[in-house]
Input
Amino acid sequence: MTYLIKRRKYRKLTPQILARIPDDELDFAIWDFIWLKVGKNHNRIDNIVSRLSAGFQMVFYTFILEGEIDNGGYNQYFFNSSGKYALLTLDSFKLIGADENHKNLKKAIAIHTREQKNVKLQKLYAERTIPSFFATYKQTKLGTCDKEFYILEGKLRQLRVRFIREHLEMFVGEISPTRKGVKSRHAAQKSKPRQPKSPVSKA
Output
């Protein structure tokens, strides 16, 4: 737990550097690298991530999914904007051989799609308040997928770390320091990075 609070963040990743990072820190190091690369360009995060290797994208999409589900289940994942990554996350599961997670997410997508016709549920979502959001848990059937996901979560991380170890070349990169006194056209923006926290986030 201490590592998760005070962990080293790498601005440069090479096969040699990655090889020295312990397994329990490896995927977090890559996750942090992605956010360092995004920097203050939060409104361009999808564009930035789309230009990274399939390996970096896999870490990003699977971390986003886990963060949302651990915080509020699939219901929160689809309620927040994170749900837009669902199909890309399916590709990430295929990439690392997470077949059971792939099946679990496909099931959740199918339930979510069917529930678009649930008028009462959609009305609660549209209100976008904390009380209405919590009320949606009594309407949605996504909870069954949450239980399956929690059982699979430990294995998912093992598959992710194993894939990284076997494909270090997919996780190489360097973030150039910003020249002093020179700002990008996005540097003045003060919005914070959207990481899954609040069940009523609109980001």
In short: Confidence is low (pLDDT under 50) at residues 179-193.
